Amino acid sequence: MNTSESTTTIEYDQMVLNILSSNGTFLESLGYLSNVQADPGITNCQTWGTYVVPIPSNYFGQTIRLAFDFATDGSAPTIFRVDDIRFLATSPTSCNYSLNTNSYTLSGSQAGTFSNATSVSTTNNCSWFAQVTSGGSWLSTTSNGTGNGNVSISVTENTGLNTRIGTIDIEGQTLTIEQPSVSCDYSLTQSTYNCPDHKAANLINIALVNVSNGCNWDATVIEGSNWMVCNSDGSGNGTINIDVTANNTGQERTGTIVVESETLLVVQPIDFKLTGINDFGNSSITVYPNPTNDILTVSTSPTQIGSNYQVVDWTGRIILNGVISETNQNIDLHSLSSGAYFFSVNGETVTFSEKIIKL
Predict the structure, then answer these.
(1) Short-list 59, 77, 60, 74, CA closest to 19
(2) Which domains are delineated in the chain?
(3) Which of 2, 210, 269, 296 is 20 to 30 A removed from 218 (C-alpha atoms)?
């Protein structure tokens, strides 16, 4: 056998050996050879091999014919040369076959050749032949023997998302081969996303989903669905996009998105203008200078001593916090980057918020 096919795992061209009745009716296939077993190149006759196929004992006493049928995909050719066809007639013997296991599960989706998928036991040193009966597009075997022996298999890579199952017949005994699907491992580029402000918006690319090619994913809001919508899904790597409504609650709110086995926390800050309402008269608190370089002075009445203060950025992240300990208290802002912040004071008798600028 010589072939121009470049693959050593995929069967494109075959020679099938069939049994026919004396009048030419098909009875069954004894086996086949393909381009997988052929020598590369078609210019010269290279290695000759002996192909031994036992004829099942149920045909003893009958007149049969052997038919050699050939199939090709019509592209790169394979040449089969048949010579010295011989029958070896022996007295009928009782042949019983058994397998030490009728199933073999591969450990992964990778292509490979696997020895000892099962062991064949037979009586009277009988011959046996292994033939793929389903899954021939990805599963192959050339195992045969006389007496006890082992069955080896070859498989191509399973790039699909479903487990695939093939079967091999060994003299009436069935061996089931199971190959798992490609493994899908998911990850996100970040576990938390902070919305830029409290406003309603369409926010794109808030996180990247990393996963093997061909693996499907779906992003689902499991908390915060009353203010956040996410319709992102995909196959392979992709991005998560969300729509959020305006946060007019006066409190920071959080939502959760689940992407397969991964979780993304979404944080939407408060509208600080809503927290600037002072039911007790916020004229009792002043901050200066504003804008400021490094030091912000907070002037309060004695009743506000002990209240908590915070400096918060535009994403709602708390940058500084502390306690008002004197009526004219200096707060050092030198560690802050230049930009806009919100300064707030919360106490038993006051709620105060004001936008400040750090130069």
Answers:
(1) 59
(2) 2-79 (no CATH), 97-179 (2.60.40.10), 187-268 (2.60.40.10), 274-358 (2.60.40.3080)
(3) 269
